[in-house]
Specification:
The protein is of the alpha/beta class and 238 residues long. It contains nine helices and eight strands. Bound molecules: pyridoxal-5'-phosphate. The site of pyridoxal-5'-phosphate (PLP) has 12 residues, from strand 8 and helix 9.
């Protein structure tokens, strides 16, 4: 079974995940057209908490860019799926601890969550040892929330420069706006910040707001529940 990516596709999906994927692909195409954009928007299908059997229909339908939050969980699921599906591009979206950097560099193609120099140096070192350098994004705490991961907006340019000096290919800025505020101004702020840092791309927008993120220039959108369905609530210990 293969579902085409363009909005003109009329194939009917026979599985809820394939149907969700197709619906998201179509509304991305609509948002891109509405924004009058001709540059590409990439869909990261966020597979955290879902097992391989639940994920497969999206891969069967041709989806190749996928995202996970936790190194351990990704390590349990993705090596086998990467074997089975050629061309999978795996993104790390969640916070990275020093003791997981080696595994992350071995497994992920893109690390979206670099938010401090210590982790950037650890990635550079691990990449050197492994002979494998993932592409990188710097995560910005765009709403300046005390409990949230990400570098502060005013410290972002400095961290991007440090990453580049360490040899990390910084391809975008990533952010998750505050849940209780309208996301539009935060998307606009991230796009402007990226421009100012000499980074020409952004990763922003999730199931609830990816169309708005695209209107603000998002290069990557990260969509989970709109494709795969509701996730079980995260236990308090995680
Ligand atoms: C879970 C998650 C997503 C996807 O969230 P949905 O609302 O299910 O689309 C996107 N980005 C990050 C960083 C996430 O942790």
């Amino acid at each position: 079974m293969s579902l085409l990516n363009d909005a003109g596709d009329t194939e009917v999906a026979d599985n809820p995940v394939a149907a969700g994927l197709l619906a998201v692909q179509r509304s991305i195409a609509e948002a891109v057209a509405a924004a009058g954009r001709s540059d590409p928007v990439h869909l990261v299908a966020v597979t955290k908490t879902f097992d391989a059997e639940h994920i497969r229909p999206a891969l069967d339908a041709g989806q190749r860019i996928v995202g996970e939050n936790r190194v351990q969980e990704a390590k349990a699921k993705w090596p086998a799926l990467k074997e089975a599906y050629e061309g999978v591009e795996l993104h790390l979206l969640g916070p990275l601890q020093s003791n997981k950097v080696k595994d992350a560099v071995a497994l992920f193609d893109v690390i979206q969550s670099i938010d401090r120099e210590k982790i950037a140096s650890a990635i550079a070192k691990a990449a050197d040892a492994a002979g494998r350098m993932p592409r990188c994004m710097v995560q910005v705490n765009i709403g300046k929330e005390p409990q949230k991961a990400g570098v502060l907006p005013e410290e972002t340019a400095g961290l991007v420069d440090r990453c580049r000096a360490l040899g990390l290919p910084v391809i975008a800025l990533m952010a998750i706006p505050p849940v209780d505020e309208p996301p539009g101004p935060h998307f606009a702020a991230l796009a402007k910040l990226a421009d100012g840092c000499g980074v020409d791309a952004t990763s922003m927008g999730m199931s609830a707001d990816y169309a708005e993120a695209i209107a603000h220039g998002a290069t990557w959108v990260r969509v989970g529940s709109a494709i795969f369905g509701a996730r079980p609530p995260v236990p308090k210990t995680q």
